Amino acid sequence: MAIRKGRGVAAINYPTGMNLGGDPSQALVHSTPTGNFMVSLSSVDLGQGLKQVMAQICAETIGVPTDLVTIDTADTDTGPHCMGTFASRGTHRIGNAVRQAAEEARQVMLEVAADELEVNASDLDTDGTGNIHVKGAPQKSISIFDTALAAHFKRGRSISGRGMFLVPRSFPETETGAMKPATCYAHACVVADVEVDDETGEVTVVSVKNVYEVGRALNPKMVEQQLVGGSWMGISHALYETTEPYYPNREHGGTDFNQYLMPGPGDLAATETIVIERPAADGPYGAKGVGEMCANPQIPALANAIFDAVGVRIDSMPITPERILRALKAQAGEMRTG
Amino acid sequence: MARVPVQFTLNGEERAEFIESGTTLLHALRDTMGDTSPKGGCQQGTCGACSVIVDGELRLSCLTLAQTCEGAAIETTAGLAAGGVLHPLQRAIMDGFAAQCGFCTPGMIMAAKALLDHTPNPTREDVIEAISGNVCRCTGYEPIIAAVLAAARSNSQNAG
């Protein structure tokens, strides 16, 4: 009986968004009379930072500071349609819709500014701090504040735009079953080191080293917090979490979240996380979805590490001490009979 | 049930209310006093989201009867940003991106404050022990541990 060390590796491709029946999201952008910008969405921020990233995308596209953008996700009854926040789709799908809406609003804004400056709209550019100027002649400029005032009170224009992003449904080909379930994929690779006690079946995750390819990290700190939390959650999926922890009688199963096991702050593995950016061709500023992807590769990596440590393949989750001991017992039985 | 008077200080302010006898401190704070910073997670003392400080000690407000707090000094996260200036723990949680959905955050902050009030220069193990009664689903805990240690460092720098 001993503590046995093992190392496992896993790599994954993870699709951004979903395919069932098409995957649309819409956005509307408009300016207030004083040049603040409102983005109306039905999308929900679960805490991953959707509002922040949508504000960044809108601000970058229109050419204003991010704090001039307000994201309104108030009501799915009245907002433009969104399929929802799931399937790692938010940044990619909703971000594309926001970008398209912001581009249309920007065009109107530049047309109003062009009228005010008596120049051609195609000769105008923004400086990102709230001003519009003639390319090559920054002294000939107008603030977005004054442009919005002019649009509202003088020119009778609505500085606004509509955004619609749809990934159409992909039907499988009858003969081959081939289809295109996603337009872009995030990637990850994990190396996990474990120690397995072959007497108790207990697994200690010594370390996980994660490399994530995320498209472009639009907000690097928020991407990092997703990845760090996701890595922990992947370990939790692999080794802890189940609604039916007691075998074989369902009556012994958990009835509440307080019987739903997750690793606590004292159970953390040494975790290293590296981000690689390969912008997606169809993502807003190159972004892909990272939400779910980051919690997946730890699972096969840990299963492989446990196999490396004690030589048993566990193919159901979570990989509990009980399952490891049963597998070890079966393996020993095979060796005796073999 | 009978309505009974209860009187205590909440974040330094004298409060006196009538509550239903048997009301938990969590519901008295949220429903009667209007302080929704303590969260009702499990309502049975296992998740820590309702954590508050009563007379300097960390307490689960969902398991504490409000009547037992007569005359006590109660602190919640809502009272931390005195004069609009964030508490070092709040600042560190923000700077360290140590909150996502935010539901555990007020309880985490009170658990950490109870630690730092007693142990201004905690070790990593002290921090882990202090927040081990608080469940977080989003962060993986590491950013929270780092934020509490950072807040302790900024406190000692300010004090020194």
Number of helices of chain B: 5
What's the total count of β strands of chain B? 5
Query: Largest interface, by Cβ-Cβ below 8 angstroms: which chains and how many residues each?
Result: A-B, 24 and 25 residues
What gyration radius of chain A follows from the Cα positions, in whole Å? 26 Å
User: Can you give the helix content of chain B as a percent range?
Assistant: 25-40%
Q: Looking across the biggest beta sheet of chain B, what order are the strands in?
A: 2-1-5-3-4
Strand order of the largest sheet of chain A: 1-9-10-11
Give the amount of beta strand of chain A, in percent. 15-25%
Q: Please give the radius of gyration of chain B in angstroms.
A: 16 Å
The N- to C-terminal Cα distance of chain A equals 22 Å
CATH fold description of the largest domain in chain A: Aldehyde Oxidoreductase, domain 4
Mean pLDDT of chain B: 95
CATH-wise, what's the superfamily of the largest domain in chain B? [2Fe-2S]-binding domain
Largest sheet of chain B: 5 strands, mixed
Helix content of chain A: 25-40%
Give me the strand/helix succession of chain A. Answer: EEEHEHEEEHEEEHEHH
Number of separate structural domains of chain B:
2
At CATH level 2, the architecture of the largest domain in chain B is Orthogonal Bundle
Q: Tell me the quaternary state.
A: heterodimer
How is the biggest beta sheet of chain A arranged?
A: 4 strands, mixed
Protein name (chain B): Carbon-monoxide dehydrogenase small subunit
GO molecular function (chain B): 2 iron, 2 sulfur cluster binding; metal ion binding; oxidoreductase activity
Pfam families (chain B): Fer2 (PF00111), Fer2_2 (PF01799)
Keywords (chain B): 2Fe-2S, Iron, Iron-sulfur, Metal-binding, Oxidoreductase
